[in-house]
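Weekly modeling sync, notes
Attendees: S.R. (lead), two postdocs, one rotation student

Agenda item 3: backlog of single-chain predictions. S.R. asked that every request posted to the team notebook include the full sequence so nobody has to chase files. The rotation student volunteered to paste the first one in as an example of the format we agreed on. Action items at the bottom.

Example entry:
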Amino acid sequence: MRLYQTFLLTILAVPAIAQQPEQTLTYRAEAAVTVSNGDYAPLWLTANRYGMTSNESKNAYLRAGIAWNKSLKHNWRIAAGLDLAGGKNLTSNFWIQQAYADISWKKLTLSLGSKERSGFPLEKNEQLTSGWMVEGPNTRPVPQIRAEIRDYLDIPGLGHWLALKGHLAYGKFMDGNWQEDFVARGEIFTKDVLYHSKSLMLRLGNKDKLPVEFEFGLLTAAQFGGDRMQKNSDGSIGLIRDMPEGLKDFWKIFFPTQKSTLENVEGNHCGSWNFGLNYYYGDWRFRAYLEHYFEDHSQMFWEYGRWKDGHIGVEISFPQNRWISSLVWEGLNTTDQTGPILYDGVGGSFNDLQMSGGDNYYTNGEYLGWQHYGSSLGHPFLMGPQYNTDGSNEVKGCRVKAQHVGISGTPSDEWKWRMLVSYSRNWGSYKKPFDKVTKQFSSLVEATYSPNRLKGWSVTAAIAIDRGNYPGNSTGGMITLSKTGGFGL
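Predicted structure, as returned to the notebook:
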């Protein structure tokens, strides 16, 4: 918190070096109530909302925030924001949702703090997609120091035919106390875990001369450092291991290496290969994308044959009309995981043999669930520990096949709507398979009204239905009232 305050004061104290600087100060206030009749709230009233809601069948939140942006001369910009939230039946009674300060020059930005970021580096329609595989809007932001080129930057001298974007970040997970409260006695949890991610994406094509663009690149993320703890049978807390987090460990996480194929790299690593293809035809836009997820080298490359796991999608953006603006179809498969066999040669008959199957997505031997405050950091169909009734900190259902459709429209400048429909099957994991394949249908219908006569006000009503056996049947609704505006400067 002291670091946040220091950086915010520094930014706010920057002198106005432009003669006529452009600046904005905006505010946002929002309240939402969710009511449902199942053991859990319907999936689409919980998932991909930046952790603002919870899977509790009845929950409510109130949030308020401000954001300041200022343009300086010589293409410099500064920004800062603060967003506070609290509520009932959530993972916290009160928390800081966003607290950040940014300084930018052209397309390069240095950002410090918690900030809602999504769709990076692979673009998807945030309102219609089912999610991202590595990181997305499914949980609260992770506080971090982040250098990034968020929007594609043309490489000079190539006539706008090649562009790049990317980022480098280090941060810290803030859910150690939540884990301690959540896990059952005898279970393991972690505290003060550090975070790292980086990406590089390239875009080939110049749509002004040829209506086709191709994107490809790599995203990697990791957990490292922190403490591995256990809640004892009497409720006391014991330290199992203080995991390395010295200066050299930051380098080991940035560039993970192994001394041999039988030795794991330090930390918990995951990532995705990302591909996108855009085609423009008049006012139409057609986009296809693939996000291939991996947790180690066996899925990162074609060591074990072609890739079978990933998230594939198609989006159609329609010409302006009264009813439909975008349509998304997506398919998800995480059932392969390089096959069911994991053999590392330790204590076996073949000491020099390794078979790196059974990757057990989103659950690591040292760092447990790839989660933050109980929600999966990646795709919500791989449900986080908040759904575990036994108080274990792991992602139990990681072998999933799913189909998803999203559609949205803007009938007028006062109304907009969206609909999500999903069907998933879940096998559990190779290590702990479910007794039978679970099936789940999840749907959402949502409409937002923003009356012109009440500038800045909007109300959103949503109805969602879940049917199946993981996480179960539920019917519920959500009402959200929000007000946005600005202050004259």
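Discussion: group reviewed the output briefly. The domain at 2-487 is CATH 2.40.160.130 (Porin).
Action items: rotation student to repeat for the remaining queue; S.R. to check formatting next week.
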